[in-house]
Design a protein that fits this description.
alpha+beta, Protein Transport Mog1p, Chain A, 2 domains, 6 helices
């Protein structure tokens, strides 16, 4: 059952591998307001193709700004675990934020995966729920009033939280038992992160 869940999450998450061939846009290079205004001006001038390109760029910048705001919920320290480097990716309408936390040789990797927009979140959430249903039966738990499934396989424990805003928050661990992983997840600002994405 654990392997099936991992396969479904892996399939969904593997889309981000494609992003290694793309360089991420630096949202600070231009002001999104300027880009959005430029799209409007090009449209008024009758340059539909140019307006579309600028509008896409405007949306990309806004999505990246929102993603960087979400990153602040991946705090530097949670429940005694120190956070490593924060990694963000965005490609093909999906976004990912990831950070590993370590304490005394134990590691917990936290990753948020979902759509870069409300519509994308809804679609991703449906896919994730389908994957979990197909994956079978982990133990269901509640994390800050969100449904979660925990899968325990020896030295590896995975906790998958389905967010109300759409998307999935994963807690993957090595050398951490089930109770400790749940305790960590309960200290993570799941509710605040979820509400900020709405």
């Amino acid at each position: 059952m654990f392997e099936n869940n991992k396969k479904h999450i892996f399939i969904i998450s593997s889309i981000f591998v494609v992003s290694s061939t793309f360089s991420l846009v630096n949202a600070n290079e231009e002001n999104p307001a300027d880009t959005c205004n430029s799209a409007s001006e090009l449209f008024k001038e009758g340059d539909i193709d140019g307006a579309l390109e600028e509008a896409r760029w405007c949306v990309t910048q806004l999505e990246q700004m929102k993603q960087s705001q979400i990153g602040k919920f991946f705090k530097d320290e949670i429940n005694g675990y120190k956070g490593g480097k924060l990694a963000t990716q965005q490609v093909m309408g999906l976004s990912s934020v990831e950070r590993s936390y370590t304490k005394s040789g134990s590691t917990i990797k936290v990753s948020l995966t979902g759509g870069a927009s409300a519509a994308g979140n809804s679609a991703f959430s449906a896919l994730a729920k389908f994957g979990l249903q197909m994956g079978g039966s982990g133990t269901k738990v509640r994390i800050q009033r969100r449904t979660a499934v925990i899968n325990n396989k020896g030295n590896s424990v995975q906790l998958i939280v389905t967010l109300k805003s759409g998307g999935v928050l994963n807690f993957d661990s090595k050398g951490v038992d089930e109770d400790e992983l749940i305790a960590f997840a309960k200290k993570f600002p799941v509710k605040e992160l979820d509400e900020a994405r709405n």
